[in-house]
Design a protein that fits this description.
This protein has about 425 residues and is an alpha/beta fold. It has 13 helices and 16 strands. The protein has helices spanning about 10-25, 55-60, 80-100, 140-155, 180-190, 205-220, 235-245, 255-275, 280-290, 295-305, 310-320, 325-345, 380-390, and strands at about 5, 25-30, 45, 65-70, 105-110, 160-165, 170, 190-195, 200-205, 225, 230-235, 250-255, 365, 395, 410, 420-425.
């Protein structure tokens, strides 16, 4: 049986793709900077970045097919260059190595957000158009557009490449809180729900995974296949969520210009002051304003793609998000990620920021995480970070439970004037 490489296989879509491939009896190797949420003994997990040419080349040894899913999702990062590096340059590195190795088939995973009509399409359907990267509404979509242009160029040269384009996948096992799930979680917490009533194309992540497999097996070289589900206004989704959750909530439609102005202001505050992901960005609003109903007819006809209705998986996702322990874990997880983004500042010449290759121990002020730092959600995240750093990670804050955790060791405080205890998370303690 041929060996298949999945870059980004520890992510939300990647995890389900790996499971789909395993169910079909295929041998799978995963290349990712993060360990999987649940490892399988029959899957070869390789820790590495798509920006590391040597790691990519080594991961491609003996590989017949490549699913390239690795990327940086979302609408905001502290350093916008990260989008370009991971999404575009990472695609360049993986494609070049795959072409050199002579793999028999390559799937590039793209995004629906680069297909909406930001420019005059001159009568070409949005599903088939390849707009210039300069027409994109922000850094994320620009990086993804450049990556798809590069993939299309490789296919035009004769390389056996196909493109799979998911819309907005959701499901119960979204451990990384990808943007669609984060959006649902945000609105679930709001009694009053100001929103932009744009078209939302939600799809079961399991259907996306199977759609990617079908694209690899049956797709025509150089063609793009949109893997979506039901396209409905966000207002209707919010009403469905309210009925499913049993919560009385009040959606309020916000005009586009006001939403865009709010996004600009929130993004400015995040960029210059809080260093935490904002609740909205200007790019996100511009994508929403341009959103249209993209047809999945080509995937249905040529691939046999047949997504299930969205209501069951939406209910499943909401039930999962509203479990009491899950709610608390999500808050701690979000707080941890926000604090790390705020306080882990690399030296000026640091590269490959997404794998956090800093050359010194980092001091994190985690006081307002209360006493949950050493719990099953926050502490393993920090231990993985310590492993990625290759150094111990110093933690300062009133985290009383940390002292009872065998993977966390007390230290002498670097600043004797501070009252909070200090501990170190060793990279070997990642669970």
């Amino acid at each position: 049986m041929a060996l298949v490489l999945v870059t980004g296989g520890s992510g939300f879509i990647g995890h389900h793709l790996v499971e789909s491939l395993r169910a079909r009896g295929q041998r799978v190797r995963v290349l990712d900077v993060r360990p999987p949420a649940a490892a399988n003994t029959d899957v070869d997990y390789v820790h590495g970045s798509v920006l590391d040419g040597a790691a990519v080349d080594a991961a491609l040894a003996g590989v017949d097919q490549v699913y390239h899913l690795a990327g940086l999702p979302g609408m905001w990062v502290a350093n916008k260059q990260d989008f370009h590096d991971v999404n575009f340059r990472g695609t360049e590195v993986v494609l070049a190595a795959a072409m050199k190795r002579g793999v028999s088939r390559f799937l590039h995973c793209s995004t629906e957000s680069i297909l909406f009509p930001y420019a005059d399409l001159d009568g070409v359907p949005a599903e088939e158009a390849l707009q210039p990267a300069d027409a994109m509404p922000g850094a994320y979509t620009r990086s993804k557009s450049l990556a798809e242009h590069h993939a299309a160029k490789a296919a035009a040269s004769g390389f056996p490449l196909v493109i799979g384009t998911p819309t907005m996948p959701i499901g119960a096992a979204d451990h990384n809180l990808t943007p669609p799930t984060a959006m649902l979680w945000y609105f679930l917490q709001k009694k009053v729900q100001p929103h932009l009533n744009f078209l939302v194309n939600l799809v079961d992540v399991r259907d996306v995974a199977m759609g990617l497999v079908l694209t690899m097996e049956r797709g025509r070289i150089g063609q793009r296949y949109i893997l979506g589900g039901d396209c409905v206004p966000l207002g209707r989704i919010l009403r469905m969520m309210s009925a499913m959750s049993g919560r009385r909530q009040f959606p309020i439609v916000v005009p586009g210009k006001i939403a865009e102005l709010s996004g600009i202001m929130l993004e400015y505050l995040s960029d210059n002051f809080t260093r935490r992901p904002p609740n909205g960005t200007a790019e996100g609003v511009r994508i929403a304003l341009a959103a249209s109903d993209l047809s999945i007819g080509k995937a249905r006809t040529e691939l046999g793609y047949s997504p299930r209705p969205i209501e069951p998986v939406l209910r499943e996702t909401i039930t999962h998000l509203l479990r009491p322990r899950r709610r608390a874990a999500l808050r701690r997880h979000q707080a941890t990620r926000a604090l790390l983004a705020r306080w882990l500042k690399p030296p000026p010449n640091a590269k490959n920021l997404h794998v956090l290759r800093f050359q010194q121990a980092s001091l994190c002020r985690l006081g307002w995480l209360d006493h949950d730092l050493a719990d099953a959600t926050a502490r393993p995240d920090l231990a993985r970070l310590a492993r990625q750093l290759g150094r111990r990670l110093v933690l300062a804050g009133p985290h009383a439970k940390a002292g009872d955790d065998p993977g966390v060791r007390p230290l002498s405080h670097p600043d004797p004037g501070r009252r909070h205890p200090v501990h170190a998370v060793d990279r070997r303690s990642a669970r």
